[in-house]
Design a protein that fits this description.
- The chain is α+β, with helices and mostly antiparallel strands.
- The protein has one domain.
- The protein is 34% helix and 22% strand.
- It is built from two helices and four strands; from the N terminus they run ααββββ.
- The strands form two sheets. Strands 1-2 form a two-stranded antiparallel sheet. A two-stranded antiparallel sheet has the order 3-4.
- Strand 3 and strand 4 form a beta hairpin.
- It is rod-shaped and about 55 Å long.
């Protein structure tokens, strides 16, 4: 076996290895892109993570 083929196999093997924490997140369905917000009106709600979230009860923009 040539050195080039051996090196190529090593690169492919390294690519196939995965951080165990990353693998657990992938197996669990990926990250959850939702957050809980509490508005100044007292309404508690869940919404997609974003820089522009408004309260569904009163419409006030939520700061982050």
């Amino acid at each position: 076996m040539s050195a080039a083929l051996s090196a190529k196999g090593s690169v492919e093997a390294a690519r196939n290895r995965c951080d165990p924490a990353v693998q657990r997140v992938r197996e669990a369905g990926g990250p959850i892109d939702r957050a809980s917000y509490v508005c100044e009106c007292g309404y508690l709600f869940s919404a997609a993570v974003s820089t522009t979230v408004a309260c569904p009860h009163c419409g006030v923009d939520q700061s982050w």
